[in-house]
Amino acid sequence: MTVQDLLLSLQQFWAGHSCIIQQPYDLEKGAGTFNPATFLRALGPEPWRAAYVEPCRRPTDGRYGDNPNRLQQYFQFQVVLKPCPDEVQSLYLESLQCLGIKPQKHDIQFVQDDWESPTLGARGLGWEVRLDGMEVTQFTYFQETGGQVLDPVTVELTYGTERLAMYIQEVDNVYDLVWAKGVTYGELYHEAEVQFSHYNFDIADVGMIGTTFESFEAECQRVLAAGFVLPAYDYCMKTSHLFNLLDARGAISVTERTGYIARVRALARGCAAAYLERREALGFPLLRKKVRQ
Amino acid sequence: MKRTAGLASSTRTNFLLEIGTEELPWQVIEPALTQLEQTLGLLLTKHRVGYEQIRTFGTPRRLAVFVDGIASKQTSVRQELLGPPKDRAYDVHGRPTKMAEGFARSQGVPVEKLEVKHTPKGEYLCAIKEEKGRTTNSLLRDLLPDLIQQMSFPKSMKWNNTGLRFARPMRWILAMNGSTVLKVKVAGLSSGNRTWGHRFGPRRAHAQDGIILKSPETYLTTLERYGVIVDHRVRRAYLESRLRVLARSAKGTIYQENYNALLEQATFSLEYPGGLLGQFDPQCLILPQEVLIAAMKEHQGFFSLVGKDGKLLTQFLAPINMKLSDKDMAVIQKGNERVLAARLADAQFYFQEDRKITLVERVQLLKSVTFHQKLGSLYEKTERMVNLVTILADWCGWESLKEPCRRAALLSKADLTTGMVGEFPLLQGLMGREYARHEGERESICLGIGEQYQPRHPEDTVPQSAIGLLLSLADRLDTLTEFFRAGILPSGSEDPLGLRRQAFGMVRLLIEGQLDVDLLDIIRLGEGGERLVGSKPSERNRVGTGNNRATVKEFVIERLRYYGRIVHCLRDDVIESVIAGCSANQCNILDLFLRMQAIQSVTHEEAFDPLMVGYKRAHRLVEKEQWTTGAVDTTLFEHESEHTLQAMVTEAMETVASTLNARNYHLALQALINLKPSIDEFFNSVLVNALESAIRANRLSLLYRVDRLFGLVADFSHIQVQGK
After folding, report:
1. ipTM over 0.90
2. What residues of A are in contact with residue B204 (Cβ under 8 Å)?
């Protein structure tokens, strides 16, 4: 199964379980959780089911294209379900079957992994799902995002698509993955890994990024004050990525680090509160719809 | 309240409650089972339901509690509650008074039903309440929801609109008493007689609808057929034997140091106790052994194997939740090997990268690593430690170790900036040792750096090397005094920064490392009271130092008590006698402990308790009586026993004084024990409070010598004579 087929199969499967197939959000982000389709939609009483591929950037994980397992940009497949269905674990296992993985022929373990994102003011309880020892999915029952206690609870499934594909294709190097017939992952992304690793670790202009962080932070606050939460949240996402860049460049000390995280979190909290307020003002429109089943 | 037991029911059944969940974290299962067992036991007793025993079983997907031989009914009770005296309860006409009516009302009994009861104190009104026993089934239906809902976990979550919190979502409840299904509702679930087998186990046709359990007694066997070993004790035993077989097939044995922890983790992570043997690339053996073991254990929960020579083998054991054909197992094995290979590749990457920056260069990086928000950076801590070890080495008389100690202290925290320690925090110290070796530091320095966190836990040993001992002591001393100075103290059971553990480690270092230094001196040193080489104490804001010193001392002494009690099973009164006997301006932990041990060892001697009786008599007299102390005048002696005691005390004084200097407390105590006959004889033959005041004063002065003599060793007045 090619990477492309894997993504298509997951989309197909979750579309079949009433998920809206969303497109990736067009901003840099560290995880699919940042996408408004998760972070904002998890808030409030409105039901929500979505699935999407999300390209994620983690500048510190870059290895100049030399490491067979670590990438500074990779693809998550993200599923969010609210309220969370009782049979969510079975659904997840079924989704593996559609990738050709027969659970009864493997060792699948749900290993405790309580997730916390200090930048998003979010936390949840759940597992990392291990397939024959390899972590292939992060499975989280969100309890809180943006400092808001969630009710109903949203469950988030985050598939590590490269890991899964490497397992299925039995390759030990991510760059050897077949993305589509005749094209490898390496051919598509290796050069980007090399260039971005150089940029993230050595080239990025720390001064420029530092001041940009400040301006984006101010812009987020300003736009929030003007009452427009969606564009404000864009700037919150941007500051988070800029912080990651500064971190990769080794430009921030441990003490400063906590300070930066707190600043991004303040923005995320502001956005979450404003979003809830706005949805409430609109009368929580999705509540009125019949729940798609 | 008085209870009269009703007829116990003769019919007994077995009760089973199974709470089905999504995969629970392995650490919470055993505590949850204990909670269930205890709470249910209390409830049954409180509600007067007899039972034979309560057993619990647990896997990641189920918490089960099984009550053997539960009575079918509560025992009935007849309560007799005494009220006011009869003469105040009825008026002259024999009509009930207000008081009687009030009593009847308060007991919910009609006033005419009140009876009169004869008691030794006279006649009293008595309300008789009878409560008929309910059936156990009806009672359990009331109790079970609370039993489940009130369970608590270190971390809990909500998952549906009932708002119930549990460690993970609950998916089914099975509740049966004998063949009766007990219907209760919890977390939106209705209980039944249905359970579920292994997720991927045999007979998967039942995976959707579950398995109907015929009776509680068939619980374990039924689930075993569906791939689950519910009894964790059995599962642990199966797993152990499976692992042993696999280890033997690799001609190795399981690495022991982390075995028990890993076994517990595996037992409670699996429903079926499987395992397989995997292998990693022999090239990885260039990594330090500790790194390989950590990479296997920390993330994957793999067991490491060692050969006959104690060296690590390239094989490992992975706990697996399945038992499959060899072909399928081979696939699982390969998957696990691939994961470990990736982690070891990472470790190798760090091992190479880390060595590109020297430890000395890394010391500078510590400036941006926080020790604690209020207490500055690890660089500052390092500076303090360098000074501390220098003076400590001096005090211990280890002149030649001064320089190596300074070097080791300087480099001690540098490994905290390495990628390897970032990935495997448990390797702190050990990586420092490896990198120091790589840089060609002296072996004693490398060893010291490697041992600086010992003892890491109660079972761990203290450092073997002198440098390691001093580093570890200096580190803890600094942490303790700095935190106390900043006012960050543990309170009650809360000790988030582990200061008690630090102090306990300090006690062990001083005693087991035989460091002969005074606690008060080292606390003063930790507080910066001693001139710190190369730093200016005046720059540091030190407040309330005097008070802190006493607090820190008391804090450490408290750990000494704990150490004596728990590790060496010393008697509390023995511990207290030594601590009370310690002077205010001296406190040598090693010395105190040696005294405690010596006293404890003679408490078993026959003469000890009688000796204490005699000593205490002397002590009390000396404390209580008024007289002018003077030298004992032997010419005033009237009885032979006075001469004997005087001579014996003089002799014992010499022995004790000389043995104290050599810390030979066993000899000192023997000398005291030898006094027993003469003290007894003295009290038997003379009257201390003699009529003639000169004789009385002389005898008291003699007893005063006895008291002082004992006081040289400890304050024996704290010893409690064990009654025969």
Report:
1. yes
2. 104
